[in-house]
Design goal:
Length: 281
């Protein structure tokens, strides 16, 4: 089984990279991608805990935003970690998350919700990429809500009065950087409408022109009808189609390998990187 989209506590998951690898092995996953948000901070631990029986694909889920303000997440896989222009964008995006969090907290305080930046930072592992899930966990700890799911449903969704947009490069800019770094670019859950505004079908053409390699078609946050449309778009543009769990540990309902990628599609995708960077023992 091939799962190309997972997270650890280095961003907003709950497992360490080593725990993630152990769970993936127990689940029978043969190829696993580590794609924490806007960081490669978990790569070293994952590499050091690699075991026979599983292949490791290193990457990151990179925050993007279209020119009209729609949030897009781009999975960059198999890129050269030493390509500084891409690392500079990841650093800038991570740093911006702190200012954004302070503005969200300010809006919540103005609405009478007792939460502070120190409450949120207490939920972070050392070096983790800050995100709204950590605010959700802080709200749970303060007993404002009962769960992460309730926090997002009631207070933290993209249409919430507390929502604040943050700096992100455009999808096309990120795709070009991933390709320049020798990797492959897959747009993650592009039609996940429950998360907020989504891109239109017409948005794919400029991303393909920039070098987009694939579409995450099979994902729990996309309906059967949305997957069928994405399947057609992928065929129209000759893009690879992936299926992934978007696993976050206990932070979300998603389970490892609940959606997977066909081996032929993965072979096609991997061949588009400029070097063989899948790690195995």
């Amino acid at each position: 089984m091939i799962d190309l989209h997972t997270h650890t506590k280095v961003s907003d998951g709950t497992d360490s990279p080593s725990q993630l690898l152990n769970k993936a092995l127990a689940q029978g996953i043969s190829t696993l991608a580590l794609t924490d948000h806007d960081t490669i901070g978990g790569w070293e631990e994952a590499i050091s805990h690699l075991r026979p029986g599983i292949e490791l694909v290193l990457g990151s889920e990179i925050s993007c935003q279209t020119n009209d303000g729609v949030s897009v997440h781009m999975l960059g896989l198999l890129f050269d970690k030493d390509f500084s222009p891409l690392q500079d964008v990841l650093t800038q995006t991570r740093e911006n998350r702190h200012g954004r969090m302070e503005r969200i907290i300010g809006k919540m305080n103005a609405a009478g919700i007792d939460i502070s930046m120190s409450d949120v930072l207490a939920q972070l592992s050392d070096g983790a990429t800050l995100g709204r899930p950590h605010l959700a966990d802080a709200l749970v700890a303060k007993k404002v809500v009962a769960s992460r799911e309730e926090a997002f449903a009631e207070l933290l969704h993209n249409s919430s009065a507390h929502y604040v947009a943050h700096y992100s490069p455009t999808p096309e800019e990120v795709i070009r950087l991933i390709k320049q770094a020798g990797g492959v670019a897959i747009i993650a859950h592009p039609f996940a409408s429950l998360r907020g505004r989504i891109i239109s079908s017409e948005s794919f053409a400029p991303m393909v022109e920039a070098g987009l390699d694939g579409i995450e078609v099979s994902h729990r946050d996309q309906t059967v009808e949305q997957r069928a449309l994405l399947n057609q778009i992928a065929r129209d543009f000759d893009l690879t189609q992936t299926g992934s769990s978007d696993y976050h540990g206990t932070g979300k309902l998603n389970q490892l390998a609940e959606f997977t990628t066909d081996p032929d599609e993965w072979e096609k995708l991997e061949s588009r990187a400029n070097a063989r960077r899948v790690l195995r023992i």
